[in-house]
Amino acid sequence: MSTAARDMARIDRLYASHWLWLRDWLSPQTRCRTRAEDLAQDTFCRLLERSPGEPLRDARSYLAKVARRLLIDDVRRGKVERAIMAAIAEEDLINAVTPERIVMATQMLTALMRVLDGLSQPARDTFILRRIEGLEQHEIAERLGISISSVRRYTAQAYVQCHAVASLD
Amino acid sequence: MPSPALTEASARIVAEAADWAALLDSQSASAAQRTAFRQWRDADPAHRETIERMLAFAPAAGVSGLERRALDRLLGSEPKAGQRRRMGGAALALLLAALGGMAGWRSDFVQDRFPDYQVAVGNLRSADLADGSTLTVDSGSAVRTDVTGRARKVRLLRGRVLAHVAHDPARPFVVETPDGTVTALGTAFTVSREQEGTLVEVAASRVRACAAVTAPCRELGPGDRALIARGRVSPLRAAPAAGIGQWASGWLEVDDQEVSAVIDALNRYRTVPIRHDAAALAGIRVTGSYPLADQDRALKAIGRTPGAEIVRDGDGAWRLIRRSGPPRP
Fold first, then answer.
1. Which of B1, B14, B79 sits opposite A163 (nearest CB)?
2. Which chain A positions have a beta carbon within 8 Å of B95's beta carbon?
3. pLDDT digit string, tens, across residues B137-152
């Protein structure tokens, strides 16, 4: 049997034996059964896209790990969407903004939040001040009371995270 | 989580790229460091790919507009600069210069995947922008627009647009492609991404066309056409101004043109192109009005061209050929 076929067979077995469990595990966390079903489904989709490559020792904790990450992404996206809607409502932009624009902003900010959430607090602060507020490195050093070389180290960490998120989907 | 299996080598490249990006991100990179960076970048295509992806992902010139307002809500009490401003132009210019050949157009990995307007093949769409300008976005085209800032920007990701620009001398209206920029000094013009480069055609008033790299610009008037490619703006044969952007009306108006050029124009709107051999059809000329949205009618009309004939290939696609016998009555 080819590796791909073996992977498929393994995921098939995982699905048969754990789908219901995963859905029930997700249900209380989403407070919505349909949402839990969607996420459980997405978890298996993710497995199909990126097979772990080796047999799973503890299938349930592995599935829960994947599902938890999707859940976090889902919550993050929801927060972003609400913030965008609130901004639109407040600025009275509802007629000026196309649906495509909203989708774009959601994607862009979700990706940005994904980068920020993967950073340590000082790296996060550095990234926000540099990339969003537009301060120069020496100004950031002054503001955060750290050395220029630290600013540069945190900036590099942020770039590594940018690359990781850009390579995700 | 099965993260994309980063080999040790590519993890090292990512780390190196991040160090370079962080260094170039400051104004203090020396000439020697920049030279060293270029050597590193050119040493391996993976180096370039990695750092471009990394830089393209980070928000370029600060975050503005709708995203900015939403972000302020998301970040709440996180650090803010006392005085809000755009990212230092010097540092950004340095980054772009370091990458080379990308001035003006920054590959924008994430955002370009989500155009504001995206038009399927066979359709046309007219969009009213917030500043009062209108854009007609052609079949198979995609654009991003930002007319809220100090400059009004349209980023043509693919295809063709016709811009009718609302007058606002304080805020230039610019259409960008990787080849260069087209700045409206007046009202109506089209910009089109072609294989050879970016084609500019002026319907009314004047525009300034600039190439991306060395930025020699050329002013164009009504009826003028120019190709921006490989760092140059080259004038092409002028056309009647009234015909420029005509496609935006949904009709292709043809006055005594080579039939193969007309088919090329119609094919822009077809998912399955009409096949033809320009050399074999040379000399056959047509005049007529063809509806872009009704391809069957356009096809029938083309098929009635004296000296030409529409046939169907084995796979079902249409082909226009030269009729061998005498023209049918």
1. B14
2. none
3. 998 888 888 877 777 8
The residue written with tokens 């060293």 in the block is B36
| pLDDT band of B268, cuts 50, 70, 90 | confident
pTM of the model: 0.47
Percent of chain A with pLDDT over 90: 9
Q: What is the mean pLDDT of residues A61-76?
A: 82
Strand partners, B48: none
The arrangement of secondary structure in B250-322, i.e. its CATH architecture, is 3-Layer(bab) Sandwich (3.55)
Chain A: residue nearest B76 by CA? Answer: A83
CA distance A140 to B136: 44
Q: Which CATH number fits domain B115-242: 3.40.50.1820, 2.60.120.1440, 3.40.630.30, 3.30.1300.10?
A: 2.60.120.1440
- Selection from B175, B179, B162, B160 nearest residue B121 by Cα: B160
A44: which 2 tokens?
A: 């298996």
Residue A167 structural domain = 118-169
- By Cβ distance, the residue of B27, B54, B86 closest to A159 is B54
Residue type, B31: A
Q: What is the ipTM of this complex?
A: 0.72
